[in-house]
Specification:
Chain lengths: 245, 153
Amino acid sequence: MLSHFIEEEGVPTAGISLVRPHTEIIKPPRALWVPFELGRPLGPPDDPEFQKRVLLALLKLLEAPQGPVLEDFPEDEPESDEVTVLACPVDFGRDADMSDNGDEFLAAFRREVTAMRPWYDMAVNKRQRTTVGVSGIGLEDLGDFIYAFVKGEPPENPRNDIPLASTLKFAVEDLKAYYIEGITMQPGQANASSKILQDWFWDKTVCGKVLLALRKVCEASPDEMLRMMGTFFLVPGEVARAKTE
Amino acid sequence: MRLEKVSEDERKLLLSFKCPSFGTNPWVTGPPLNKRRVAIITTAGLHGRHERPFQMGPDDNYRVIPGDVQANDLIMSHMAASFDRTGFQRDWNVVFPVDRLREMAAEGIIGSLADFHYSYNSIRAQPDAPEPIREVAGLLKKDGVNAVLLLPV
């Protein structure tokens, strides 16, 4: 719907459509529906030729004689033939007892975070970028910051420009990014699909288990914003439903 | 996305979102592609590494991304947990394809890239409050932009 107003002001627009039925209702001037999952408007990462084909198809809509135009991009994201199975090479103690005071589990969590570090560092070096850093909390402190909520001892907000619940949300995204950036640098993981990465993170890592516990704690919090964060924003809905069924 | 690939719950949720429809179909033409000046508008909640994250309130509208932005400059503070971030974590062009557009400008497929691109946290513009969007449209015009690519997540 942004395009409607921008075009009204005299600037031509062309947009990617992810959810086709939404676009059919809104009828923006020019839209290219793509079959890729949410979060990937240009399709696969590290595939410049594919991305360029999507962009060209989108730009071509600007040459349509009349509209509104809604076209479908004809290619699906390529699926790798290679069977990728991600596993944590070391058992960090995902099955450690979270009850009692959880110290054993916290130790397992810390070990796993530390073990990911060389892969993360290599990823940053190789890609010359990182998406970690939204929360502003240092990598060394992220795990403990998050775990404090799980233990029912929420820390002080280290920032004064956003609420504590937002800092927590961004800390969670930072930690997830740290794991994904690192694991995709390991041998044979270059083409791991988002599904494989998601399954690995939530099913195999101690961190995934910590975040599921965090969700539960936040959902029961007297703090309204933490409660909302826990219910909607920390764990993908699909994962939360699968884990609570 | 292929709706048939997600669960029934997810599909129902997506289809329950209210979408506005408009009585008019604005349509502006422009020069051939190789004369176009292109800007990106993303709704992925991207912004500079040292900028304040997006807030949930209605007043936090957009961020400006400079045309000479580099890959390590951009981070994402979108609130939603339900879209894939692993693509962006590996390659920023999945969400913000500025490398590809720079290549296309160098090859003469498009004319040039704008001095500024814009980022929203989600689709903030409500049909009854489109003023912030109109403001951005005015800025795009001053930048000489005649092709805006809207890229959601």
